[in-house]
Amino acid sequence: MRNSMDENEINPGEQLREVLKELFPADVKDNSFISKIDYIVQADGELIDLVYNSTINYLLRRLILTADFLKRQGEKDNRQNDVFITKLRAFLKDDMHFPEKHIGRISVLILECLDKRKKEVPSSTKDKIRKKAKNDNKPCYICGSELEFDLKKERSHNLVQVEHKWPRAMGGASNDFNLEVACSTCNSKKSDYIDASDFHYEKICLVSDENDEYFSTEMKREYELALWAKREFKCSICGKTSSVGGKLKFARKNPNDSWHFLNIDIFCEKHSKTSKTK
Ligand SMILES: [Zn+2]
Ligand SMILES: [Zn+2]
């Protein structure tokens, strides 16, 4: 059971991304090349969102990683922490051209992200989460496969791992509310990715059809992860994760069109059946 305090917690990286979105809101009605391409591929705004999110994620990474770089430089030169803070503020103001009035708020969030980056999950917490997952017979929350709980089988691709839903490297907390059990394959492929826009969604454009023998080879695990990520690893209809509703399946929105990122949606076992009969 999650405790109620956890529910209200937000990762500093997530907060920082919200600030960036406030400062640079998506202008859906603009006349950019993205809007034009979104229109011709009938993405209904989804392509605009992907490009927007990917650009915001890029900005978030630049801020967190540059700050980490500056901090390490300062530590190497044995400088005081306030020298690092001055450098960070100068980077935000002079290099990134953030408006003066937002620099205080942004710096505070960046420092919190750096703090989270360093904090690994305590082994006692990992033990507790793994033990509970084993008792509940929980599968990987991403791909839904059965987990190997014997830690001695370290080479197993289904070995249980404690995964940060919002990546630690991007300012994700090592607390219960941000942790889930995943298999080692999904954990490593998800890496420090935030959402579907961080994956190579543009490469997902398959030639084969569902029943072709090459389909499973073409639909690589990276692609599956990107597709699941676009619905935050939940069924697009009922919102169930694979831990509850079984492995999430794929179906096309338009059955006459090919299997490509914008035409594929994600369903639990039950809803994959109803979506296909339509
Ligand atoms: Zn998995
Ligand atoms: Zn469902």
**Physical arrangement of strands within the biggest beta sheet:** 1-2
The pLDDT mean sits at 91
Q: What Rg, in angstroms, do the CA atoms define?
A: 21 Å
Structural class: mainly alpha
Distance between the termini: 37 Å
Description:
It is a single chain. The chain has 278 residues and is mainly alpha-helical. The chain has three domains: 115 residues, no CATH class; 70 residues, Orthogonal Bundle (DNA Binding (I), subunit A); 79 residues, no CATH class. The chain has twelve helices and four strands, in the order αααααααββααααββα. The strands form two sheets. A two-stranded antiparallel sheet has the order 1-2. It has a two-stranded antiparallel sheet with strand order 3-4. Helix 4 runs antiparallel to helix 5 and helix 5 packs across helix 6. The chain is globular. The protein starts with a helix and ends with a helix. 31% of the residues are buried. The site of one zinc ion (ZN) has 9 residues, from helix 12.
List keywords for this structure.
4 strands, single chain, 49% helix, mainly alpha, DNA Binding (I), subunit A, 278 residues, two-stranded antiparallel ribbon, disordered N terminus, binds zinc ion
Brief synopsis:
This protein is mainly alpha-helical. It is built from 12 helices and 4 strands. The protein folds into 3 domains: 4-118, no CATH class; 123-192, Orthogonal Bundle (DNA Binding (I), subunit A), CATH 1.10.30; 199-277, no CATH class.
